[in-house]
Each structure stands twice: as C-alpha cells, then as structure tokens.
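Q: Predict the assembly, please.
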Amino acid sequence: MVAISDSWVTFTVTVNGQVVTRTVEPRMLLSDFLRHVLELTGTRVGCEHGSCGACTVLMDGQAVRSCIMLAVQSDGHELMTVEGLATSPQELHPLQEAFREKHGLQCGYCTAGFLMTLLPFLQENPDPDEDTIRSAISGNICRCTGYQNIVEAVKVAAAVMSQMRPQTRSQTGSHTMSHEAE
Amino acid sequence: MATRYFGKPIRRNEDPRLLTGQALFTDDVHLPGMLHAAFVRSQYAHARIAGIDVDEASAMPGVLAIYTAEDLGTYWKPGPLLLPPPPIEGTVFHARTQVPLAKGKVRHVGEPVAVVVAESRYIAEDAAERVLVDYEPLPAVVKIEDALLPGAPLIHEGLEQNLNAHVVQRKGDYALALAHADKVIKRSFRYDRGTAAAMENRGIVADWDSKSEQLTLWDTTQAPIAIRNGLARMLGLSEKQVRVIAPFIGGGFGPKIMMFYPEEVLLPWMSMKLGRPIKWIEDRQENFFATTQERGQVHEAEIALTADGRILGVKDTFLHDAGAYAPYGLTVAINSQCTLLGQYDVPHYESEFRAVFTNKPIVTPYRGAGRQHGVFVMERLLDIAARELGIDRVEIRRRNLIPPEKFPYNNEIIYQDFEPLIYDSGNYAVALEKAVELIGYEKFVKEEQPRLRAQGKHVGLGLVTYVEGTGIGPYEGAKVTVEVSGRVSVATGVGTQGQGHYTSFAQIVAEQLGVPVEDVHLVTGDTAQFYWGAGTFASRGAVVAGNAIHAAAVTVRNKVLQKASDELEAAIEDLELVDGVVRVKGSPNSAIALGELAARANPLRGAVRPGSEPGLEATDYFGPERGATASGVHAMIVEVDAETLLVEIKRYLVVHDCGTVINPMILEGQIHGGVAQGIGNAFYEELVWDENGQLLNASFMDFLLPTADVMPHIETDHVDTPSPLNPLGIKGAGEAGAIPVGPLFAQAVEDALADLKVEIREIPLSPNRLFELVQEARATLESADG
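A: Predicted assembly structure:
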C-alpha cells in the first residue's frame, strides 16, 4: 500500500525474495533505488534512457529496464536482480557459468543486463537457434565482446538448463520465477 | 617450450565477481556523508561568458556549494600538456589545454562552466538547471576544412590562427618516386568522428580525510599513477597522501587515459574544501560532450607506382581535428602518419599534417588512435591503383609486402613513442595467403560472385592488411609475492578495463611458480599497492606489464628454488615447482609447500642471512627500447541490398599476428570486440554536428552502436611471429580488430556495387550515405552514357 507524507512515498517491494519497505522521493528511478538505496550495485546503468539494457532486472519474472521506471512503480511487485541469480561467487547459476566458460564478458559492465534479459528468454525458449538468440539480446549493448561469445554462452546455457530444468527454477533464488514457469 | 599455463585458453579469474554483481565499479562506492556533484555545461560551441548568476541555485535546499572559474582562485590552471611534440625537425606546435571550468569563454558544447555540490544527485541536477549563464554566442569552427580559412573565428586568443601543429616527415625523396612513376593516383579522403561509448560512463569519488590528511580517489581512469602524481602536485600534497584507485572499469578504449579531465581536478579540491566525500558520475548525454573523442581527418593523398603495381612512393597531406583543446600532444596524428605505410615496402614517403582547433569536444586516442586513418588512405589508394592498373587487388598487395628477410625494417620516420618507426618482426605473406585461402578468394571471385550476380545479388569481398604499433614504453613494473597461504599476489600499476589481466598476468606467474592460475591474485590500478607505472594504452598492457611480471616471477622462482634447496638439502637443478610445492624430481615425498617456504623465509626468530631479503618476493620493471609491431589481414564478404543500401556481412575473417599469445581465448575476445567497434565506426556510428557545433545525435537512440543482430560471426586464425624486443615475445592486440575495418567495408561494398562504379573515399558510411553515393555514381554513369 502506498502511503504519502511530505510528498515522499513509502512503498513495499520484494527484492530477491526479501520484502523491503522504504520511503523515497516519487521521482526516484528504480535503478537508483536498487543501486544507491538498497546498495544492490550489481545492476548497472549505461544510458539512463532505456536503450542499452545494462540496467535490466526482472519484475514478476519479466525483464524490465530499471532506469526508465520509478522505484514506486515496483510497489507490491517482486523484483529480481543479478544478486539473486547465484547464491555466491563460488556457486554460479548455469547461465553465469556458461558466460564464464565461453568468455561471454570482458569488462562485465553490461553483463547483469544480459543475464537478466536471458533468464526469462531461456525459460520461454529452451532450445533457441542462433538467430533467435541474437534477436533476443539485440536490445542489449555490449561494447567489448562483439556478442559472439555471448551467443556461444547462451547456447551452452540453454543446453545445460534444459537438462536440469526442475533444479534451475529453485536455483534462480526467486519463487516468482517458479510461478512464471508453471 | 612446453607450458602448463602460458598460452592456454584458461577461463578468467575475475569472472565470478563480475557475473554475480560483486565487482566494485566507481559508482558502487558509497561513503557516509557523501555529497554529489553535477556540472553546468556550455550549450554553445563558441561563446563569450558575460556573466553567471548562481543566486537562485545556491538558495535551494540541499545545495552546499556552487563553484565557477572565479571561485577556484589560483587553483584554476589549464591542464598539463601530457606529451610534448616528438623531436621532428621543423615541427610547429601551439599547446592549448583544457581548463577546469571555462573562464570568459566556452570553446565546445558541454565544456563545464560551473559545478554544483548537493546532498543528492537529484538536487544537484535541479540546481544546475537554475544556474543562469549569460552567453554571447560567437561563430563556431565546425568543419575541419574551415579551421584555417582566412577569417575563420579564432578559438584561442593569442594564436594567429586555429593551428595546433604542423609536422612534416619524409622517407627518401618523393620527387624521385614521381619521376620514375608509370602511374600516379591522387584522391581525397575523409574519416570522421565517432565516440568510444564505453558502457560505463566516467565517474569519480573523492574523499579527503582531514584527520589522517589522506585523499582517496576512485576514478574510472586508465592511468591511476599519473593521476595521483598530478593531483598531489596540483593540491600541494605529498604523493604519499594521495591514493588513486581505478577499480573495475566498464570499458576504457582510450578516452579514459585522458587526463586531467576537469572533473578529476575539481572533485578532490571540492572534497578538501567541504570536508566531505563527493561523487560525480557522468551521464550518457554528458559522455557525448565531456569525454574525449576521435577521429576527424581529411587527407589529400597520392601514390606513385610502376606499371606492374610496385609502390614507388606515397605523398599524403592531411588536416587533423584536435577539437577545442589538445592536451594529448600529437599522438593521434603521428599514428596516422606512421601507420599509413602498413605492411608495404615504400621507398619514398612524404607526409605533412596540420592539427587544427575546432569548436568540438577534445580529441584524444580512441581504440586505434589515428591508425585507422592511415590504413584507410593506403588501402584505398591500393584498391584504386589495382583497378586502374588492371591488377588483382590481392596481387598488388602481395607484390609490395615487406619480405621477412628485411626485418627489422626501418621506416625512417619517428613514431608516437618518439623512437624511429622500426618494425621488429613480421611474416606478412604467410598471413595474407592464409586469409586468401580461408576466405576462399579465388573461388569467390571466379565462381560464386559471378553466379550470385547472375541472380541479381550484389555481393562483394574485401581484403585488407594493416599493422599495429603496440607495446610502447616507457615502462611498467610489478611486485610478485608468495604469501604464507601458498597463494601468490601480484601488484602492478596498469589499470584494467576488461582485458582479462587478472587471468593473463596470473598465467605468466603461474607458469614460473607452478601454482594454479586461480591461486594468483592480481592487484591492479591501486596506487597504494604499486607505486610506479604509466598506464593502460597503446595495446601495451600484456607487452610491458606482462614482461615486468614475468621478470619479477622469474626472480621469485629463483628465490623459491634457493630456499627449497637449503631446506630440502637438494641441488637446485634437482628441484621442480609443481602444484604449489617444490619437490625433488622423482621423489614426490620430499616436497615442501610454497606457503611453508614463504613462512620460513620470514622467520619470527633467528636471523635472515646478511645479503638476502626476507620473504619470497621480487619487484621488477620492464621498458622496451621501442614498440612491437603487430599485423594482420581482415577479409569479409557482404551482400548489399540495392534498394535500401543495407549491408549484410556474410563472412568476416581475421588472420592476426601478435607474437606470442598468453591466452588465446582472451585474445580472440579482444579481436571480436575490436572488430565490432570497427564495424560500428565504418557503418553505424557517426557524430552529426550542425553548423553551430551542436551535436544532433547525443543519445544511444540516435547514435547507433552495433547490436547482436547485425554483428557477424567472426572467424579467426593466427600467425605467431614473436617480437624480439621482449623476453616473452609478445606484441599487443587490443586495437587490432578495430583498425582496418573502414577500408575493408569500402572495398567490399565497392565490389558488391561494381556495376555502379561507386568509389568510397569516406568513413563512416551509413545506408543513407551509401544511397547518396550510389545516386551520384548513377548520375555520372548516365551522363557518360548520354
């Protein structure tokens, strides 16, 4: 429930499975909220106008661009950021593992956006061909890799994830994803 | 040599932190009490500042301070000239460097005029909008060709014209070439501006602690050590009081080596004034004006040849757009001048350039750093020559390659490192033939292209060569330490922006010390960890820092062996380093762990013998006498849609020679990324200015970067010709992918549109521009028919 006092807004959102209630200026961007209020800095900002995809997070399982959403618009919703993908740097999600295996990242700045774009994509497209993969990530800009190794990583991830589909859901760390998959 | 780690495609040490969102980038730094800065930037390319009214903005709640140039007092100084002009006789050079905040006059859109410090970035931006600057607009110099025209608006008072530099370099005597030529071809060429567009914009966090009198700066710089030294001098502090950390950086590509950006000068000063940490993060729109760019040049070039296509000489005269200020010296223009000669044996060369000031953002190196222009001019001249002489375009290149026996090959001109341009080693014909074979040149030209053309398809092939001067000095250093845990730490001064240094440098150490790569921990870009260094630029990290790390690791290895020899009472030559232990060969039970040796080398009691040092540690440096020359061939096959002039890349091939390879997986990644930027530069990315110097496409909506759906699959192959200039035989690779794509595009598209006789003499292209060129070609053909 949104409460308003002195024009600041109190709202409640679930982030990576944790319920948080905060009071913010209504104009605060969701990306700033995640990065600077919750200090979940894994979500990156590249263009502040929704065209590079670096800030992509999941809202109720759908990929959204957090730099063109207001924080308060997430009231009552479930968000997942890259921090919710792996339980620790030692235990990577198969998608992350595939990016490492195939050298699908260099500076790593756009990577969280790619991962969060790809997660729902791979759930809907368990066995995508190369054109479909390239189309799926065509809204995310990477300036380092030329995309080739990202595409290779997605192929590997798709193969691994479709083999271990039941486990994959629980590994996403968000029950929202399980709902979406069912 | 048989290697365990060196040369292997080992996955990267840095990836888990990056993939899980744990890696620290500059904007991730949160400090208690941190303030936020926003800049008021010029809306005019050229204007006098009649006044600045900050009253309304200052009164806003949450605003702590607003500074203009006047408020800086004696701290206001033009930035340092980073590089003096090279020692070339007759060089004219007028230094004009950027200022922290514009005083009296602005010289490009986006130049900072005032800075607001507030409790939040939101408030700072609100207040910046309420700072009223009274501008008196002046006519602007926008086109390169206009800069030196009589009556052109003068950008810098005190100069007679907008001339930054005039340089002439000669090899042989071009007049001789002309006298003996059967064919002379003369053309003009244009190569225009794009921007590096690293995904992470620039950013700075400055934190002055008045109690410890320490300044800490997190900065997205490629040169943390130089920033520390400069800031200490400017602020009147000891270098020991300033710590600069270049944490994880979201892509550099050159513009982040520029220094000092106004924000780098102001943030620390303001933190000291206000006694609180301050953050400034550039936004994407600012990045289009406030971060440096490349690459406007206009060339008038000619080539003199024999009838059988041998190059007798080249003459090139060009204008180089330096932008509003020129802090970086002549690196970019000298690179253009020097890279033009490419892989070819050119007996006579005359190259003259004028670097000019314009009312546009500052030009400093961006991946390729001027090399693109030179390669474009030379490769285009050869294509035109081949056509006019009736020689196959591969054959004309083949006939002019520098043969292997001519190395080291002296081009008799001065390179960007102020040393003679001498190619260290190369095996150009091998790479060329490999590329011809792999792209299927003969089959394409003789069978596929005619067949597809008969079907009405416009398909074409491009094949070009290039060299890349890499790995220049002055030096880098490194400290390698075996820790008591058995892990090895490496500290070096170069910053890292995604090149995989955490892994490739670890491989160099692992090779010497026999520890797994993941047990080698690299610290880079933190001046508190390593004092000396120059920075990451000119494809030099692996060459210069890599060899320094190698040297330090070899010394540590010898210390390890000596210590183990004492402890195990065995001869050094009987010992081996394997899996983190030293053991007697053939006697695995006699092993001692590296960590245990490190502990014994730093005892709590007893004595470390005189003449020896505690611990298992070494610091070493490497400085090459001059740069190593990498080289390669790119080839591609395109299909051009005759209606829309969209170009689809059907195949893309790179055959590359960067000497010894540390990690082929990382190397391929560098090439892929370079090619992507090259393709962007050639066909997508163009900064469009109006006649007032306003940038018309300063967003990712309007400035197109290549996306996954338009990028081809890149095939790669390698030739390994080690450099004799460093012990590891490495040449740099960072810029190779980006350098030759312009002429490659031009040649392939021309070939695809051969029936229209389009001649492409400019980059960037776009479907729109191609359409115009095709219309012009059609009109010419029709008038010729008529």
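DSSP finds seven helices and six strands in chain A. Confidence is low (pLDDT under 50) at residues 167-182 of chain A.
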